[in-house]
Design brief:
homodimer; 593 residues; alpha+beta; Butyryl-CoA Dehydrogenase, subunit A, domain 2; 8-stranded mixed β-sheet; 9% strand; AcylCoA_DH/oxidase_NM_dom_sf (chains A, B); oxidoreductase (chains A, B); EC 1.3.99.41 (chains A, B); flavin adenine dinucleotide binding (chains A, B); 3-methylmercaptopropionyl-CoA dehydrogenase (chains A, B)
Chain lengths: 593, 593
């Protein structure tokens, strides 16, 4: 079972939900055309399907053995990585001044989805490199940029993010890695970092580590953290004092090496400051926000892959007889209502998560490219709100869809040979790294809802309402109860948002934090449901204009399924958010044993 | 991290939710006393925690290598199995005439939960043996009973269920294994079976296979299937013509050998008919119903284990600062509202699933032991309704709770060493085997709801309403909105049930099947929520009577959490059931690509 990127649906979502058509019209993307976007997507789809997808199971089985500090990547991976970088995929979103193509985050997001759907363990590495490029571009000194950016943009070298230490995970204020100024502008870095993705590998000759550490006189907590660039190989060609001391044996993404990195046990690793002293967290957050969207895309990606595999199996596998089929013998299980429900749930959830991720990417583009400052700020706030939703909702969907994919396979799903189980194993990490989904929910509620005094989130909700009104006006019976169900979901979100803003302003903000996770889910259902409806409206308009592509009818059916069968969870989630915080007092008792 | 069976909560649930006190009072269980039940549970808890739990990870790592048709179980397993059987645990529910203790299914269910929580791959073997004992007791000839029952009851030998063939999974009508009468009362069995749990192992000297096969003149489909007993070692001490030809490499339960069994490639395996010719499926369903409850208990078990591990981690792990804590430095993550929510969701879901499983077990006991035929029939119908809910709801909960357990651990949850990931891997199968959860939902809707013209399910719903009324009358503020939220859930279930019964009777029963899965979930929420409320009411009464055990307050808090934060999904599920079937027409289009 291979992977075929759903190019038509990706492009349709980009154009009609994430606003690509509109952005191209107004000149936001320079001379980029829809045709060019399509041909890039088709080229990417070919590479993902033909080169990366076949290496997915090989990677899972081989893992990344560590010996004497060196890691051997699985067979075929080095060649695939070089072909991928040489084809320009790593440079696609990179800065033009350093050899990048400067193409939109929106387009790159569709590509990131493809790489990760084909092979999540492969796709993860470039996510880190791209984040580092962004951080260096924005905050690196000209010398550092000159020395590192071109090779990172081309993919000749890769990069890592070094945040976590054993005592400092979600709470980075606790980190202990130290940086001592040498006097020549460089620093000696000493400390241990864990869970460093692609911290060591043999895909490239050098690896550029971005490392959070404390200067000697740094204040305690998160205000005393600085960011350093620490290359594996120093500019003079010698090895830096950094090594991989161990790798984790993980549930999934076996081919993505997760390293314990030791800095400076030979006297200090040489590094250079990136950005201002003690402001490392701000730079890292830039990198992390980019990575958070990419991780959300991993959720979409693994869901799409799991869906394609389950769909294919359900068409082939014959068991029982369905009422709707007249043929002799056993019928394909896709004909059974319960299997249909599973497949539609998978497809609709995936499409909703994709729409949210692409909307986030488009808002990020606009926050950089918009003409005036107000539009930039509005887009930045929109991206800020959507990023935690894109990350957490999509990765939860990734797990759920991969799990349903196993279920569709029945007993065969539990057998590793089938491949369905690998998707579930791989998907599980995305809800954890780059800030657990619980952290995303807190970020959404505590930091993002209050942006512009709540106006930013209100603007998003107003747009959702606009889409619902559009469905109501459309009148095509194929929409079923889409408008009614989405309206309920959006109104639930609106009331829950008011509750959250009020609770945050009260003297007991834990009332808001207690409901952060169900609130984020509710947000995803309303935003995802209306995004699918927006696509369906565009499809409906195309049909009215005479287009006969059956995919248009499918888009309406999918929006309807989501509204009638998934968005209906919104009301219960609203109750949980607004009235479920009673557990805050009860918990110490209830969890005592 | 070891496992401690929650004996107090198990016993409380048995007594006050599953009706153990009442059953003892009316003499249903002979001279069984609550004290005896408690001491048996405590003894079982000791064995589970001290002997079985430490072997869980060993089993996961070693697996069950197959060489020359023989399987080597992991280190320590053979000794543990013998100690377990010698302590009488296998014989606990077995028939007294054959050395069993004849103790209730309810009590055994709590024990089954313990074995599986401690070590699911270990606990699975006896589930099959106990099912075979029940089938043989009810349908075996005296000769077969005499030859096999005693050794199966003692655990000296184990048993298997052989249903699945490559082309016959959920659809057993398609099976091809053949049985030819020899003329001396025995049969020659020829065919291949897959996914045979504990089909081969070195725990015992003999293995008794129960095998579905077709007689030469059998009608096609499910009405032409007979059941045969085929021992690994024949009565004369020679090896039978049956062998393990392969084992599956699975996502989880690595220490439970999943075998491909080949019967008769040396001319025919010798077997004997169990029950009537062509009535094998009825016998197998008896066995399978027993096994379905046991699999539901596995869901509860793995959820409990995952909860205990996550709770322990959340108390130890320190990250960030919580508003509710004054202490210096970082605070245990259990103090963060979002982590509290995760842990309470885990605990409340687990308790609800446990209550449903124990209720099912109690109904099974009553269906055998009740004094008059009407009471027996009513109990049988209740058990019939609850069994698919116990199986599917609990195993879904098992997966969800195990997945949340990984999440509570953050990055460490994804590292296999921690053990949290194993629970998720192990839990995943329970939603698939013994009839996928989709099959359970169809069974509930299509076969169980219509029992006694719908009166059986109405009686259950009436009891749920009674509990809600009890909460309303109780008046203790600690219940919060429990009554209101549970009332909504029960009324949603009631309306959805009416819809289902009507749809089944219509000429388009697919309208019912389309909503079977969300209906079963809705059933679980209403039944589970009211069961927790019933326990909470008993706790409230105990407190009013002067008992000061803090567990009583915790029971009320848990029921409240479930009602206010989980049962609230009921209304949306009702909508899905009653109005979401629009996808039946849309699906062919929406799933075309």
């Amino acid at each position: 079972m291979t992977y075929r990127a759903p190019v038509a649906d990706m492009l349709f979502t980009m154009r009609h939900v994430a606003g690509l058509d509109h952005a191209i019209e107004e000149g936001l993307y320079g001379d980029l055309s829809t045709d060019l976007v399509q041909s890039i997507l088709e080229e990417g789809a070919r590479f993902a399907g033909e080169v990366l997808a076949p290496l997915n199971r090989i990677g899972d089985q081989h893992g990344t053995p560590l010996k004497d500090g060196a890691i051997t990547m699985p067979p075929g991976w080095r060649e695939a990585y070089h072909a991928w970088a040489q084809a320009g995929w790593n440079a696609l979103p990179g800065p033009v001044d350093y050899g990048g193509q400067g193409l939109p985050t929106l387009l790159n997001s569709a590509c990131v989805e493809m790489w990760n759907a084909a092979n999540m363990a492969f796709g993860l590495g470039p996510v880190l490199t791209m984040g580092a490029i962004e951080a260096l571009t924005a905050h690196g000194s000209d010398e550092l940029k000159g020395r590192y950016l071109e090779k990172l943009v081309s993919g000749e070298w890769t990069a890592t993010m070094n945040l976590t230490e054993p005592q400092a995970g979600s709470d980075l204020g606790a980190l202990r890695t130290r940086a001592e100024p040498v006097g020549d502008g460089s620093y000696k870095i000493t400390g241990q970092k864990i869970y460093i993705t692609y911290g060591e590998h043999d895909l490239t000759d050098n690896i550029v580590h971005l490392v959070l550490a404390r200067l000697p006189d740094a204040p305690a907590g998160t205000r005393g953290i600085s960011l350093f660039l620490v290359p594996k190989v120093l500019p003079d060609g010698t090895r830096n004092d950094v090594r991989c001391a161990g790798i984790e044996h993980k549930l999934g993404i076996h081919a993505s090496p997760t390293c314990t990195m030791v800095y400076g046990d030979g006297g200090g690793a040489t590094g250079w400051l990136v950005g201002e002293a003690n402001r490392g967290l701000a730079v890292m957050f830039l990198m992390m926000n980019n990575a958070r969207l990419a991780v959300g895309l991993q959720g979409v990606a693994i869901a799409e892959r799991a869906y394609q595999q389950a769909l294919s199996y359900a068409k082939d596998r014959r068991q029982g007889r369905a009422r709707t089929v007249q043929a002799e013998g056993m019928h394909p299980i896709i004909e059974h209502p319960d299997v249909k429900r599973m497949l539609l749930t998978m497809k609709a959830s995936t499409a909703a998560a994709r729409a949210i991720c692409y909307m986030t990417a488009a808002a990020l583009d606009r926050s950089h490219l918009a003409g005036d400052a107000d539009a930039k700020r509005a887009a930045h706030e929109r991206a800020s709100i959507l990023t935690p939703v894109a990350k957490a909702f999509s990765t939860d969907i990734g797990i759920e869809v991969a799990s349903t994919g196993v279920q569709v396979h029945g007993g065969m799903g539990f057998v590793e040979e089938t491949g369905a189980a690998q998707h579930l194993r791989d998907a599980r990490i995305a809800a954890i790294y780059e800030g657990t989904n619980g952290i995303q929910a807190i970020d959404l509620v505590a930091r993002k809802l209050p942006l512009s005094g709540g106006e930013a989130v209100r603007a998003l909700i107003a747009e959702m309402r606009g889409t619902v009104t559009g469905v109501t006006k459309n009148g095509d019976a194929a929409f079923g109860d889409t408008a009614a169900r989405l309206r309920e979901a959006v109104e639930s979100l609106d009331r829950a948002t008011s509750f959250m803003l009020k609770a945050l302003a009260s003297n007991d903000p834990d009332q808001a934090l207690a409901g952060a996770t169900p609130y984020l889910r509710l947000f995803g259902l309303a935003q995802g449901g209306t995004a699918l409806a927006k696509a369906a409206l565009a499809a409906s308009a195309a049909m009215k204009a005479g287009e006969t592509d059956p995919a248009h009818g499918a888009r309406i059916a999918l929006a309807r399924f989501f509204a009638e069968n998934l968005a209906i969870g919104a009301r219960g989630l609203e109750d949980t958010v607004t009235a479920g915080a009673g557990f805050l007092q009860d918990a110490p008792l209830a969890l005592a044993s």
